[in-house]
Each structure stands twice: as C-alpha cells, then as structure tokens.
Amino acid sequence: QVQLVESGGGLVQAGGSLRLSCAASGSIFSRNRMGWFRQAPGKERELVASISSGDTTYYADSVKGRFTISRDNAKNTLFLQMNSLKPEDTAMYFCAFAYSDYGGFNAWGQGTQVTVSS
C-alpha cells in the first residue's frame, strides 16, 4: 500500500514561490506515474501536473511556464516548484500515485494548503 505525505504549503503573496514535497512510501515509486492535483473551495479537483515513469511531464494550461514537477527517486519524493503564484492558485494541493502510466490515479495524500494573497 502506497502512502503519500505532502508538505510545503503555506501563505505567500502574489508573485511569490513555494515548493511542495510529497514523500511516498514503497519501493515502486520510481516506476510509477505521479501527479499533483488541486481543489479550491466549491470547485472540482483538477490535475495540475504529472510525471510518468519515464519522466514525461504534463502541465495544465493554467500553470504552464510557472510550475515544475520533478522527482527524486532515491528519496521517493515528488516535488512541485511553483513560481509567479497568483491568487487563483489558492487551493488544497494533493499528491497522487498511479499504478500505470495510463488511466486514472489510484491514491492521494491528505493535501497541503496553498494560499496566495493579492
């Protein structure tokens, strides 16, 4: 069973940066697709970025050029570097795991709150 623990959220002014981390348990981390989702109050959860087992990345249009997803397989850790933050980036951010590079994600962490003030 995979366990995911996010950290790094907080309050930041617009234009600022944050780096989210996700510590994953289990030795299969490097062979699996990982992602970051976010959910704002009253909105559906959306995929922000993902990275495949072969390190192919995907970004939502709203964060392209501002966010960078990366992974450290030796430390079983996933990162999301967020730059040029906007108030509309305010949301709970969740780390996610998928058994396959295809299809949906299978597990999520508890989330870390990101609040961007204007």
Total helices: the number is 0
**Run of helices and strands:** EEEEEEEEEEE
Arithmetic mean pLDDT: 93
**Portion in helices:** under 10%
Distance between the termini: 40 Å
Characterise the protein shown here:
The chain is mainly beta. The chain is built from no helices and 11 strands. It has strands at residues 4-7, 10-13, 18-24, 33-39, 46-51, 57-59, 67-72, 77-82, 91-98, 107-108, 112-117. The strands form 2 sheets. Strands 2, 4, 5, 6, 9, 10 and 11 form a 7-stranded mixed sheet that branches. A 4-stranded antiparallel sheet has the order 1-3-8-7, with no helix packed on it. A hairpin with a 6-residue loop joins β4 and β5 (46-51). The radius of gyration is 13 Å and the shape is globular. The N and C termini lie far apart (40 Å). The mean pLDDT is 93.
List strands and helices in order, with pairings.
Elements: E1 4-7, E2 10-13, E3 18-24, E4 33-39, E5 46-51, E6 57-59, E7 67-72, E8 77-82, E9 91-98, E10 107-108, E11 112-117
Parallel strand pairs: 2-11
Antiparallel strand pairs: 1-3, 3-8, 4-5, 4-9, 5-6, 7-8, 9-10, 9-11
Short description:
The chain is mostly beta strands. Helix content is 0%, strand content 50%.
Features:
118 residues, mainly beta, 11 strands, 0% helix, 50% strand, globular
